[in-house]
Amino acid sequence: MNTLKSIFSIVLLSICLASCESLVTDIPPLKLPQIESKLVVNSIISPQLPFINVIVSESAPMFNGSEAVEKSLDNAKVLLSDGINEMQIPYDSANKIYSLPQSKFPIVASKKYVLTVSDGKRNVSAECVVPGKVPVIKSYAFDTLLIFSSIYQNIDPLNKDSAITLNIAWQDIPSDTNYYKVHALIDFDYNVAAPKSSEVFVEKRIVVQHKFNWRWRTEKNEILSDNQLDGAILNSPVGKVDLPQQSEQKNKDGTKVIVYPNTKIKQVLMSVLNIDINYYKYQRSLEIRNSSDNPFAEPTLVYTNVKGGLGCFGAYNAAQIKIKDPE
Question: Rounded to an integer, what distance in angstroms lies between the CA atom of residue 292 and that of residue 297?
Fold first, then answer.
């Protein structure tokens, strides 16, 4: 009986899917809703960032066809104002963003900024206030983690641990509602098998920067609020970064070149960001949308504070600790 039910369910699902496909493909394009594309603007500013970067694109309207993609725009006029001064942000064709060194337009804590973007046909604007205070980092702790995986079976005998973990604790800013994001970067100095020519690989020392992953344990992430924890000591989830693996290449003559990384840590930069409400709501809406595995669930709208368009213009003020050549 269970087998019959399973077969019936499969057949029914196939019929439903076929019907749905027929509904979509049989509707003439002229009868589908005509939705115009919108400007999409994304920018996060901070006193700690060396550049003011703005990404400008236009949305791909629904029912535009399977080949519709979000299109980057390089002909927009992007202006940033602090209420007194205004600066146009030029387009950086190499990185495909609008970018301005902060030395030309300093971002100041507690100030309100207004971003306006126009492509000649559409005009959008957004505003945000840079958080005025930074949290105080109270402590941090590194640890090592051995991952039991076939990837690490031949790990460098001089580097027996396969990952580094990090936890950060900080003092919440009292008497205010605050939203935080933790971030950490680590610079690894290690050996790889690199091409000396088209026929031969040799050992080479390189330095590469990696980000700590705060979401490898799915129950927590790097964004949180001080809800009901005003003035308390807050703790980050455990961040993790995998150590470099041994590299293996074959020379043209068939001989193997196996290089153990012999990893050294050059530098760690830890940050606790006091983020504004726009940044927080935008990130939370992305999490909710991306965490749904149910294809029949109601779609979740992504938060936007861009008037007349889509996207997020937000800000943060960060506490940072940099450690060089840690033991």
Answer: 8
User: Is the separation of the CB atoms in 272 and 235 below 8 Å?
Assistant: no
Question: For residues 52 and 85, is the Cβ–Cβ distance under 8 A?
Answer: no
Give the pLDDT score at 146.
Answer: 74
| Residue in the structure block whose two tokens are 């600066």 | 87
Task: Tell me which residue of 49, 23, 16 sits closest to 317, measured CA to CA.
Answer: 49
Q: What is the pLDDT of residues 218-256, one digit of tens each?
A: 667 889 898 888 889 999 999 999 999 889 999 999 999
Q: Quick check: 248 and 275 in contact, CB under 8 A?
A: no
Q: Which helix (H) or strand (E) holds 103?
A: none
Structure tokens at 20: 């749905």
pTM: 0.79
Q: Tell me the range of 16-20, 292-296, 309-313 where mean pLDDT is highest.
A: 309-313
Contacts 24+ apart (CB under 8 A), 64-73: 70/40, 72/96, 73/39, 73/119
Burial of 84 (0-12, 13-18, 19+ CB in 10 A): exposed
User: Following DSSP, what letter does each residue of 305-322 receive, concatenated?
Assistant: --BTSEEEEEEEEEEEEE
* Phi-psi map region of 284: left, alpha, beta (phi>0 left; psi -120 to 50 alpha): alpha
